[in-house]
Design a protein that fits this description.
The chain has about 190 residues and is an all-alpha fold. It folds into two domains: about 5-95, no CATH class; about 125-189. The chain contains seven helices and no strands. Helix 1 packs across helix 4 (about 75-85) and helix 2 (about 25-40) packs across helix 3 (about 50-65). The longest helix is centred in the middle third of the chain and has 56 residues, at about 95-150. It starts with a helix and ends with a helix.
């Protein structure tokens, strides 16, 4: 199940259960809601489900002296959605509150995505900095390697070779070998 489906289920399941129970117990409300909606569709372009319930309440007070009629505002969006599901040709007639809640969930997800993108940008910046450091280190090792190689070609080093003192030459060769290993390691990473 997707995150959005989970969010919908979490947000709407209790209200949906209440709506289904109320709708089953009071079928006359659906009939009145549908009749008023069709009457309004012929007269106006858009209308709010809450306003239709105010008309139903008015009619119950005036026609039946029923002053106690009250419907939970959360249920009105379900009546609008039920109407749109049954009559999809009138989809844009209602402004559904559930859409508002879904938009809020989407905005929260967009904020999370933006935060994750910022974190990713930070990681990429750190990786780029690490690459720059590695390039600098590579340049340093290459320079030192060249210097060490140049040392072997110096006349004094060649004189040491002829006198039998190979310590400087051997140390320089060890340094060159170590630098070459380090440079190979840097290039692999």
């Amino acid at each position: 199940m997707t995150q959005m489906a989970d969010a919908k289920k979490t947000l709407f399941e209790p209200e949906l259960t209440n709506f289904l129970r109320y709708d089953f117990d009071h079928p006359e409300i659906w009939h009145q809601f549908r009749a008023i909606t069709f009457d309004l569709i012929n007269r106006v372009k858009h209308y709010k489900a809450e306003a239709i319930f105010e008309i139903i309440k008015y009619n119950r007070i005036v026609k039946h002296n029923e002053f106690e009629f009250n419907v939970d505002g959360k249920l009105t969006a379900y009546y609008a959605e039920k109407f749109i599901n049954r009559y999809p040709q009138h989809k844009g007639f209602f402004e559904l509150k559930r859409q508002t809640i879904i938009v809020q969930v989407l905005k929260e997800q967009a904020i999370k995505i933006r935060d994750l993108k910022a974190r990713l940008d930070n990681v990429l910046t750190i990786a780029e900095t690490a690459d720059n450091i590695m390039e600098t280190l590579k340049g340093f090792v290459e320079t030192e390697l060249k210097s060490a190689t140049d040392i072997l070609d110096l006349p004094d080093v060649k004189n040491y070779q002829s006198s039998g003192s190979y310590t400087l030459q051997n140390n320089t060769k060890r340094f060159i070998a170590a630098a070459q290993c380090a440079l190979a390691q840097i290039k692999r990473n």
